């Protein structure tokens, strides 16, 4: 489960609380649990050797928790790049060929990504968008919007024949 999925489930549970003070009590309960988990995670992060922690940074749940509690050792740009280049064995991984980092504006939260030039098949672009945006939600929740650019097409290949056309002889 990702931090985003957990957050949605907690919000749904809080929305079901009705009656005077029930919602406030539920939100206070969530705050207290978050504080406890944050303190525990901070102690673990401090005790774990950096190379051992690095192994957990590709896991969406672990990364999401570290980001949520402001314990992730990488800056936003590094986490964005990690989201765009996940290990190939991670389920739902979006290979780096599907999106290229073009820029991030921390003031607005806008991330600019570049799609590779179209190959003509036109398949899977919405799936790629969903996978990339899902990975960003875990690794870099500071990203509030994604602007997609298309890389310029490569110039056509020059075709050289084996002999000049018949009219040119």
- The Rg value, from CA coordinates, equals 23 Å
How is the main sheet built? 3 strands, mixed
Any low-confidence stretches, pLDDT <50, length ≥5?
none
Gap from first CA to last CA: 71 Å
Task: Give the domain tally.
Answer: 1
What proportion of the residues is helical, as a percent range? 40-55%
What class, by secondary structure content? mainly alpha
- Mean pLDDT over all positions: 81
SS summary, helix count:
6
**Strand runs, count:** 3
How are strands sequenced across the largest beta sheet? 1-2-3
Report on the architecture of this protein.
This protein is mainly alpha-helical. It has one domain. It has helices spanning 3-16, 22-47, 50-56, 60-68, 76-84, 125-139; strands at residues 100-105, 110-115, 145-150. It has a three-stranded mixed β-sheet with strand order 1-2-3, covered by helices on one side. Strand 1 (100-105) and strand 2 (110-115) form a beta hairpin. The longest helix has 26 residues, at 22-47.
Layout of secondary structure:
Layout: H1 3-16, H2 22-47, H3 50-56, H4 60-68, H5 76-84, E1 100-105, E2 110-115, H6 125-139, E3 145-150
Helix pairs in contact: 1-2, 4-6, 5-6
Short synopsis of the structure:
Helices cover 47% and strands 11% of the residues. The protein has 169 residues and is mainly alpha-helical.
């Amino acid at each position: 489960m990702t931090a985003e999925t957990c957050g949605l489930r907690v919000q749904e549970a809080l929305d079901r609380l009705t009656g005077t003070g029930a919602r406030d009590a539920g939100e206070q309960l969530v705050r207290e649990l978050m504080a406890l988990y944050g303190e525990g995670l901070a102690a673990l992060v401090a005790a774990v050797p950096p190379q051992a922690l690095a192994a957990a940074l590709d896991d969406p749940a672990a990364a999401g928790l570290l980001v949520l509690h402001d314990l992730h050792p990488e800056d936003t740009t590094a986490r964005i790049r990690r989201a765009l280049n996940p290990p190939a064995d991670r389920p739902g991984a979006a290979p780096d060929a599907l999106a290229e980092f073009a820029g991030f504006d921390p003031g607005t939260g806008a991330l600019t990504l570049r799609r590779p030039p179209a190959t003509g098949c036109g398949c899977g672009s919405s799936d790629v968008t969903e996978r990339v945006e899902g990975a960003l939600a875990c690794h870099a929740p500071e990203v509030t919007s994604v602007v997609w650019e298309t890389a310029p097409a490569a110039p056509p290949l020059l075709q050289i024949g084996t002999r000049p056309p018949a009219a040119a002889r």
